[in-house]
Amino acid sequence: MANVTDLQTKYSKLAQEYSKLRAQNQVLKKGVVDEQANSASLKEQLKQRDQSLRKQEQEMDSLSFRNQQLAKRVELLQEELAASEAKGKKGKSKGDSPSQHGLQTQSVFDEDLQKKIEENERLHIQFYEADERHKKTEAELRERLEKLEKDAEQHHGVVDGLTTKYAETIERLQSDKARLEVKAQTLEREAKECRMRTEDCQQQLRRCQSELNRQVKQSSSVIQEKVPFNDTSEYLQSVHCAAFQLKARDVAGQAMSFIQDLVAALLNIHSYTEQRVHIYPLDSSIETISPLNQKFSQYLHENAAYVRPLEDSFLQLYQSITEDTVTVLETVVKLKNFSDNFSSYTHFLQKILPYQLKSLEEECEAPLCTAALSAKNQELQSDIKRVTSVFEKLQNYINLLALPSVRQDAMPHSNTSAVFTQLAACLHSLHDAIKEMSKHYNQKADIERELPTVTQKLCTTTECLLGSLGSLTSCTGKIATFFSNNLDFFTSSGYSPRGSTAALNPVQAESMLANKKKATAYIQAVKKPQSVPYREALSNRRILTSSTESREGLTQQVQQSQEKIARLEQEKEHWLLEAQLGKVRLEKENQRIAELEAQLAAALGGSPNSQTAAAGALTQGHEEAAAELKAAEKEPTLCTSLVLLRDRSVGDEESREQLIKSHYMARVGELTTQLQISDSKAVHFHSECRALAKRLAIAEKSRETFSEEVKLANQNITRLQDELATTKRSYEDQLSMMSDHLCSMNETLSKQREEIDTLKMGSKGNAKKNKGR
């Protein structure tokens, strides 16, 4: 059936090519018909020109004949003039009246002769100009006719070549169609035979199933009646491992994030490559790119149809791995879908590989391509081939891993470990190949920036493509590292039966899950506490006892520490009060000493030295008192206590302690209130920060969306501006051509009017002369 679909696709492609060629043939035929019509019109114009030329030749003949007549008449007039002059000489003696009459006749003849000479000169000039104009027009028309004949011959040659080509194509398509029809009939016969064999096999399967059901019922009845319970078989020795399932789901989740990054990077690379094909080496907005690049761009535009299914199929695989399932290669059915999608993407890479190589060759053939740029393009060609071959290896290994879910006896466990090891090595090879390709592309971009014809659009697209290659490099590196780190988990046999190296088949997995569900339902029905193995219970008891003892010891230590802290706080308060009382006593002593010094100074009275000493003592006492006051101001609580003590210096010691205690309690209450307010503010600020962080993330996403929209809008604006400039330039060219044409037409009309006026004047003069005669 695959061959039939391939043949149908090939036939459809050939039909499309035939329709395209047929449309081109119609266009060429239309062009040939238009050229033939133009040639016919030009021939008609040439005929008209010949007719006008013949008319002008006839006029010239008539004018030359008229000129000859006039010349003969002039000669006759000259002869008559000579004769009259001779007669005049002879008859001089005869009187004045005949001589006067002869003079008048001579003057009339002279005037008529002068007019005829001027008219003859003017006609000669008109004849010469008309002859030159006719020769020029005839040369132009002959040149144009030769050019049109050459174009017509070329068009006829193109039409003949296309006709022969289409005839060959039609014959080949008809032969292919006949061959395909024969093959389709053969395949239909084979399909009928296969359906018949399938029906026979289904009937045999039904008979086997009924026989097996009968044997199972008989065996189960015998087992229930005769055989006791025996759990020594390998079939019942596999145990469901929740930890293994959680580990498998965690690993699948990490792989899912890596696959999403890989898909995003591949989509960006293909999209930016498509944009680059439309920009370099030829800009599609200015001129048409080559058919090969057009086909390459069309294939790249379809990349999402091959890349997106990778993420979707792996997401289905991730969702199928839960805590209540058994995850082995034999039971993971969704891995086959991922393998098929990966195979289709690999085929897509193989399909676009020749176009990628040809596109790089076209870049090398560009006129401004340097030797260094050509070398980098060759290196990129080898890198692309290497990446495609590595993807093909990955496809083979993934197909091998997906095979046990289709065929249970496809691959033993030892071969599975070898496949996982080779897959890890292949992932590292993919990372190295993409890293090398990214390095060469960076070097190529640096060389391209130095070219004089590089546009800003090409630089932007190249930067985006380099960023996508960098993200793909980091993503493949993460995948290779992740797979190497979890290689032991992939190669471990988490569900193989105890005492056996065979893998778990789907039937055993189903029975295991059914037993687990039955056990869970039984425990929930009995409502007994969950049982724990004896050894685990002993270890838990030891841990609990040691933790209880350690907790009691820690509790005692905490209590002792708290008592010690409280005692130290009390001692601290006691010594603070003692320090305050000592300061009060020191002040009183200083005052008393100052009073005694004053009394002593007053008693001494007369000696200046004694007065100076007394004054120095007083100054020193005042300085000490000031220093103590400044030290007391630095501690607000001590200062407050001193004030209280000074105000109540007469009171007893108990009242002072009570006042100090109440002051400190009030201070503690204030600090507690401030602490609570600070905690509430901190909680409020934390919630606000979280909300702002969420809003920031949403704003970043919207900014990225808007930036993409702005980029698309800028691209559309650039494209529209280019189209507008092209349209404007074409209109300006057309207007200039029309203006030139109008100028030439105006000149022609003015010349024709002048000729008409000249001819009219000449005809009027001739008419007058004829009337005068």
Automatic annotation (TrEMBL):
InterPro entries listed in its UniProt record: PPP1R21, PPP1R21_C, PPP1R21_N, PPP1R21_six_helix
Subcellular compartments: Early endosome
Keyword RNA-binding listed: yes
Extent of Basic and acidic residues compositional bias: 44-58
Transmembrane segments: none
Biased composition (Polar residues): 98-108
One MF term in the entry's GO annotations: RNA binding
Region of interest (Disordered), ranges: 38-65, 83-108, 753-773
Keywords: Coiled coil, Endosome, RNA-binding
Name of one Pfam family that matches: KLRAQ
Keyword rRNA-binding: no
Lineage: Eukaryota, Metazoa, Chordata, Craniata, Vertebrata
Gene Ontology cellular component list: early endosome; membrane
Coiled-coil regions listed: 131-204, 551-635, 696-730
Domain Protein phosphatase 1 regulatory subunit 21 N-terminal per the UniProt entry, residue ranges: 12-113
Name this polypeptide is given: Protein phosphatase 1 regulatory subunit 21
